Amino acid sequence: MYRTHNNGQLRSGDIGTTVTLSGWVQKIRDKGFMVWVDLRDRYGITQLIFDEERTPKEMMETASGLGREFVIQVRGEVIERESKNPNLPTGDVEILVREITVLNSSLTPPFTIEDDTDGGEDLRMKYRYLDIRRSPVRSNLVFRHKVTMAVRNYLSGKDFVEVETPYLIKSTPEGARDFVVPSRMNEGQFYALPQSPQTFKQLLMVGGMDKYFQIVKCFRDEDLRADRQPEFTQIDCEMAFVEQEDVLNTFEGLTKHLLKEINGVTIDSFPRMTYDEAMRRYGNDKPDIRFGMEFGELNEVAQHKDFKVFNSAELVVGIAVPNGNNYSRKEIDKLIDWVKRPQVGALGMVYVRCNDDGTYKSSVDKFYDQEDLAAWAEATGANAGDLICVLSGDAAKTRAQLSALRMELAEQMGLRKPDEFAPLWVVDFPLLEWDEETERYHAMHHPFTSPKPGQMELLKSDPGAVKANAYDLVLNGNEIGGGSIRIHDKEIQSKMFDYLGFTPEEAKAQFGFLMDAFQYGAPPHGGIAFGLDRLVAILGGQETIRDFIAFPKNNAGRDVMIDAPAPIDHEQLDELHLQLNLKS
Ligand code: ASP
User: What distance in angstroms lies between residue 287's CA and the mean position of ligand 1's atoms?
Assistant: First the structure.
């Protein structure tokens, strides 16, 4: 038997017993006449002691010869520790070793296996198995397990059934690019990895499963942005015979359960906001509502003077930064540089200092008098001592820029507190979204989303105004879930494809199976999918999803540990009927 106890288990009540422990050597302190070893496993650390007086000589030598991360097994007596360590659950005891077996040696690890390691990100990714030995990474994985168990228990208790859907499916447009898999048996044909099990979960509803969920990998070949993973996990859910209200209530229930169970936080009910309101008040469809700095629109109070920049703008909008009047000129210049960065893209920023004596000092004093600026302060909710930051230009772009500034300022001011949770439903999303590149409308959520009742007609006259039965769940400024009520009528679905620019042939080739199914008694249905990685990170008080994934890809989409993606050899290519046509 390798062990009778784990390394986090022994307490003073065990003193006098003989135990067997196994684990990794975390640390060795060798004083010559005495050697202490910290033995580590997933559960904790137990101190081992070897001493000249009580330990045979060759065992002393074995102890001295141990290196960091050696795997050992020891048998010995639990004794009281002379200098107790109150920071360690096992800190009252140590093991006087009677037998030791070196189960495996170890090279010196490339970074220290400690909470604060000296290893950089790349190195830790390359040796992820060593990184996982560190308690912050390990505890994140255990935390993730706890969250997924809570999800499974909750949904299962509400009659949801976890059903697996296939990974080798057919390429369908769903917003992102598909990862494709060549089929050896079918020359020139390809599977695609699912971007989500969307159509399958709808077919499960047609199949009468009624309530489905799945904790499932999804794959999207998107251009990589920081903290995006090409493969990620969803809690994917679908329900039959539901309206939007039923879905929101069910998954508000799940989210409340998680916040209670995992974080001990009780939230009575989640606020709701329409998409339009979120854009107007926060310039963002996933607003962080833990802090204020709401947008104040200034067109009316700023477009009556000779300031051309504002007069020609579609939108002039500002936020009041609490106590921002403390900022030095230099600090304000830094903010201006920040909004002018290409990633944000503003051309400049107008600001107003709200002095303590009730007067204003702005960067556009040439054009605006105190009365004008007082109206700006009123519109942005600014008080004496605040700083008003104003951006202008194309409405959509300006909102996005000011939203970015709002988030940056909140970050700088420490307003994004990880232990404070502010969920929010954003509802009534537009059905369609204008795409500059292709110059046409695309489904904002996906083509299976149903418009609000009675709005199908608007599609022709004012497509941008059509609202969908689509909703997002936002937590602390992150979209953690999104879903919709689906179309379940063949005619409407084919009209939608037609509207989205699919020819009848294309629609049939790609989604014929779904429309066929709709002809056999498809129930009304709807659902949602949560991004598990992000959800776990936020519940864990962090925002980096990589830290909660056992074997993540780096920012370039590579697994640097196994070195993937990688070329395949010619025989394999031949078998797959593929020929490489490399550009370089
Ligand atoms: N399949 C959708 C997604 O991945 C979620 C849903 O509509 O349920 O975003």
Answer: 20
Where is 93: in which H helix or E strand? strand 93-104
Assess whether the C-beta atom of 214 lies below 6 angstroms from ligand 1: no
CB-based contact 142:163 (threshold 8 Å): no
E-state strands within 149-259:
161-162, 180-182, 190-192, 211-219, 231-240
Question: pLDDT tens across 100-157, in order?
Answer: 999 999 999 999 999 999 999 999 999 999 999 999 999 999 999 999 999 999 999 9
CATH number for the domain running over 12-104: 2.40.50.140
Indicate the burial class of 364 (C-beta count within 10 angstroms; 0-12, 13-18, 19 or more).
middle
Q: Is residue 331 a contact partner of residue 395, using CB atoms and an 8 Å limit?
A: no
- Cα 243 to chain centroid distance, Å, stands at 27
Please tell me whether the overall predicted TM-score, pTM, comes out greater than 0.70 for this model.
Answer: yes
CA-proximal residue: ligand 1, atom 4 (nearest): 196
Residues of the chain within CATH 3.30.930.10 domain(s) are: 139-272+424-548
Residue range(s) in the chain whose domain bears CATH number 3.30.1360.30: 291-415
User: Is the C-beta atom of 527 inside 6 A of ligand 1?
Assistant: yes
Query: What per-residue string of b and e applies to 389-426 under the rule 16 or more CB within 10 Å gives b?
Result: bbbbbebebbbbbbbbbbbebbeeeebbeeeebbbbbb
Poorest-confidence range of 394-398, 453-457, 534-538?
A: 453-457
Residue to mutate, 165, 178, 198, ligand 1, most ligand atoms under 8 Å from C-beta: 198
Distance from the CA of 202 to the center of ligand 1, in angstroms? Answer: 11
- Enumerate residues 6+ apart whose C-beta is below 8 A from 560: 122, 125, 126, 554
Reported CATH class of domain 291-415:
alpha beta
- Do you know the residue count of the chain? 584
Rg (CA), the chain: 30
Residue type, 468: A
Whether pLDDT at 497 is above 80: yes
Q: Is 139-272+424-548 CATH 3.30.930.10?
A: yes
CA 237 to centroid of ligand 1, rounded, Å: 9
Residue 236 pLDDT exceeds 80: yes
Which H or E run contains 394?
A: none
